[in-house]
UniProtKB/TrEMBL annotation:
Protein name, as recorded: ADF-H domain-containing protein
All copies of domain ADF-H, residue ranges: 1-132
Alphabetical list of Pfam families matching this protein: Cofilin_ADF (PF00241)
CDD domains: ADF_cofilin_like
PANTHER family: COFILIN-RELATED
Record organism: Carya illinoinensis (Pecan)
Amino acid sequence: MVVHDDCKLKFLELKTKKTYRFIVFKIEKKQKQVVVEKVGEPTPNYEDFAASLPSDECQYAVFYFDFVTAKDYQKSRIFFIAWSPNTSRVRSKMIYASSKDRFKRELDGIQIELQATNPTKMGLDVFQSRAN
């Protein structure tokens, strides 16, 4: 599986310049490569991100999560989400699962990984608990 250069470029912009809040990636089956599907501007919140993931298709996503610690420190973490809904096709799940580690290695700076099969597996409370 090839990773399109635009994926790395957009991720670098998210990581260093905070240009985006999230990036959603998909695998283009014909070209056998991972490409950028959608980007979220810095202002969208978690709900915008969750709504951008399809209910029946696997995808990868990166989410820049800002939070405040128990001691009132402002922090952030970059999450990698392997989105694989229960309603997606088995072949698609297999392709995404087998390509995940290779793709993730291309995105230097991911701090936390989540596997999600439905929205409750990646709720705001899950982000908060994993970020601390």
